[in-house]
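A.,

Following up on our hallway conversation. Structure tokens first:
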């Protein structure tokens, strides 16, 4: 029974897309357009130069394209299923999360795992196509590939907790749509989604080092393209693991406090 509950929770959001072929077609087209535009942009930026901010043209293009593909890991339309924390708080239905057989924190984790596995299928498919087409460069070695996979796993773990904190803020705010958009922009900016952090000023890079955002994407992709050497991989992986532990403890505390704010009428 527990396995059945876990399976049902994990497939909530993916089913929303699998049962809507036009939506999947739109996702495929948007992803293809993003990859082509990013590839064209970075090749154009490097047309008159060889190396910038320690990155060659091929490294920069590979980083940017992989960042686009990695965005599919959690970029699913939760609003279509009306199962986001923000929607539940708005409609007063969050109380049902506390009446289900699964605790809310476990349900949230299982649903996120299903979303990431579904997104991983998109990302791996796109990666395989880009690799065959020569859009991205392969890892420099088997060791670099292994470190990248481990770092990416830790990065997605950190991202899960970052997104969880954003959702948990809904328990303490009445209207937080604008705040969520601002925080999501900060997450994408500081994690290197828009551009590698190496292109930003030194003070910006130093500031971001004290935040968990770059551990989600910048570190794994920098290891992949070789901007962070393998000799520094152990330190970077330990930093990512430390963020996982710290955020896990923090979100566990927030779950306990959030439960005290839920009343029988919901909201």
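Then the amino acids I'd put at each of the 267 positions:
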């Amino acid at each position: 029974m527990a396995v059945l509950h876990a399976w049902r929770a994990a497939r909530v959001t993916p089913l929303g897309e699998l049962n809507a072929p036009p939506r999947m077609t739109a996702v495929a087209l948007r992803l293809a357009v993003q990859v082509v535009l990013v590839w064209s942009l970075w090749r154009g930026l490097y047309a008159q130069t060889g190396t910038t901010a320690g990155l060659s043209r091929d490294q920069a293009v590979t980083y940017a394209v992989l960042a686009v593909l990695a965005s599919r890991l959690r970029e699913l339309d939760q609003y279509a299923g009306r199962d986001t924390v923000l929607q539940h708080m708005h409609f007063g239905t969050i109380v049902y999360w506390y009446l289900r057989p699964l605790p809310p924190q476990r349900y949230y984790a299982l649903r996120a795992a299903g979303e990431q596995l579904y997104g991983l299928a998109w990302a791996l498919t796109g990666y395989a196509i880009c690799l065959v087409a020569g859009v991205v460069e392969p890892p420099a070695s088997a060791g670099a590939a292994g470190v990248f996979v481990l770092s990416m796993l830790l990065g997605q773990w950190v991202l899960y907790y970052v997104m969880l904190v954003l959702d948990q803020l809904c328990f303490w705010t009445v209207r937080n749509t604008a705040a969520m958009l601002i925080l999501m922009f900060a997450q994408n900016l500081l994690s290197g989604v828009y551009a590698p952090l190496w292109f930003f000023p030194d003070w910006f890079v130093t500031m971001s080092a004290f935040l968990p955002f770059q551990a989600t994407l910048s570190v794994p992709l920098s290891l992949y393209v070789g901007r962070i050497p393998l000799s520094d991989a152990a330190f970077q992986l330990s930093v990512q693991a430390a963020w996982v532990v710290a955020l896990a403890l923090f979100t566990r505390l927030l779950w306990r406090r959030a439960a005290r704010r839920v009343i029988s009428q919901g909201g």
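The chain has a mean pLDDT of 83. Curious whether your intuition agrees with the design.

B.
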